[in-house]
Every structure is written in C-alpha cells, then in structure tokens.
Amino acid sequence: MESLKVALVYNQVAQSVAAAEKLKKLLVASGNTLDQENPDIVISIGGDGTLLSAFHLYIHRLDHVRFLGVHTGHLGFYTDWRDYELEEMVDSLCSNQEENVSYPLLDIVIRYRDGRADKHFFALNESTIKSLHRTMVADVYIKEELFERFRGDGVSISTPTGSTAYNKSIGGAVLHPSIEAMQLTEIASLNNRVFRTVGSPLVISKDDWVEVRLPKGGEFIVTVDQFSVQQADIASVYYRVAPDKIRFASYRHMNFWHRVREAFIGDLN
C-alpha cells in the first residue's frame, strides 16, 4: 500500500503523550511518514476536545485530509479507537486507506458596523451568541425574512454532531449527521404577554441560512467551538451549512446512535 503522511495532535496528559510516542514508532515501522505540515491523515489523541483542536489546526486542508480520533478516557463522539488498540488501528490504516465518512460543518461570518473586514469561521460542534452585560436582544432572520425578535440569554446554532453537546443541554434535539442541516436553539428566552419567541429548537436545511442581527451599542461574545470572539460593534452573525465537510477515516467508525446511547444512557442490561 502507498505510504501515508500522518500528523499527530495530542494533549499533554501523560497517557496521551505516551500513546503518541508509541504511535509514532508504529507508524514509522509500518512504512508511513510523520508530516505535521501536509498530512494525508490527522490523528488526535485525547478526547473530543483534542479532536476539535486538530480540526481547527488543519481547517485549511479540509479537502486533503481525513481525521481519526484516539480516546484515552470514555468513548467520544469523534473518537473511535482506544489508546490500547494502536497496533490494530495502524494495521487498519495501512490496509483500508480510502474509506471515509463525512459530517456537515457550520459556516459562520461575523460582520461589523465600523468598516472592519468580516471574519469567517467553520465550526464542527456549534456557535453561540451571548450579551456580556445585559439581556440579549436580537432580530433573527431566516433567508432574509425576519423570523423573531429574541430576548434572553442568547442563541446556539449547532451542527448535527454538535447537537449532542451544548445544544442538547439547553433542550435541543439530537440530529443524525446524515442530515445536512443546522439547529438553532434559544438560550433562556423571555416569553410572556409582551415578548414572544417560538421557544422551540429549529432545524434549518442546507438551502436556508440564518442571520442574527444585533443592536448598536452592545458588547457580545460569539463562540466557535471552544474559541470565543469578544468584541463591540458586531452588526450580525451569519450562519449556513458549510459547503465543505469534515472527513473521518472510517476503518471502524461507530454507529452514531450507538454513541448517543453509550454517552447518555449506558448499559441497558
């Protein structure tokens, strides 16, 4: 089989560092090359947070790389292998080089009032918008039509795989990643006789887009996965299902519903 160029991303927990050192030796012994600059495959070692870091580190090479996650604790939503299965993983890597599964991403554009250039991001899990100092007031547009005026703590927009993360904790639905959509979920919205919102999560198709328009004078924090952008003069945040996807090496990619059951329900026996 053709040699693969492999990059490793791992956290500094002792167990992850030890697994990374062992994996480096196994990869080289099997005829593959360690290449942190231009890899064919990126292997993260740690947990879902480490995989998110790897995604953002190599986001500029989405068309060229596949990702694979090794977890050193409990089963993650993006990690398929345990750190004691490295030999088996490398064997699979060498014999099944073309198999992959892809997941939708979130395309995000932050627009400003003061003439600054737009900022463009991709998210694998979710993005949120919150006001720093007071109740957030925002106009939510879906495909250029005003849908609602939101008042509350904020809004969250998630991908299908990200629907199991923060989105789920605030009452959002769990979406299968084969559904190319994003989900908008309100965070502690105000609903009374004066102020009304839909109050339910919205599943929005890849053909639609959402723009959250923010009032002048406010200071907001926008999160993109584990990163945050805290600035004044944000005019709006635009969301759509990204045209690009993340690809995972699917040598032993676990069924999504199995992951959900293991994460939230556990053993049924």
Automatic annotation (TrEMBL):
List, separated by semicolons, the cofactors it needs: a divalent metal cation
Q: Which NCBIfam families match?
A: PRK04885.1
Report the SUPFAM superfamilies cross-referenced here: NAD kinase/diacylglycerol kinase-like (SSF111331)
Q: Which InterPro entries match?
A: ATP-NAD_kinase_N, ATP-NAD_kinase_PpnK-typ_C, NAD/diacylglycerol_kinase_sf, NADK
Q: Which reaction does it catalyse?
A: NAD(+) + ATP = ADP + NADP(+) + H(+)
* Name of protein: NAD kinase
Q: Where is the active site?
A: D48 (proton acceptor)
Where is this gene product found? Cytoplasm
- Family recorded in the similarity comment: Belongs to the NAD kinase family.
Write out the GO MF terms: NAD+ kinase activity
Q: What is this protein for, i.e. what is its function? A: Involved in the regulation of the intracellular balance of NAD and NADP, and is a key enzyme in the biosynthesis of NADP. Catalyzes specifically the phosphorylation on 2'-hydroxyl of the adenosine moiety of NAD to yield NADP.
Domain of life of the organism encoding this protein: Bacteria
The gene from which this protein is expressed is nadK
Write the Enzyme Commission number(s) for this entry: 2.7.1.23
Keywords for this protein: ATP-binding, Cytoplasm, Kinase, NAD, NADP, Nucleotide-binding, Transferase
The residues that the entry says bind NAD(+) are D48, G49, N125, E126, R151, D153, T164, A165, Y166, N167, K168, S169, A188
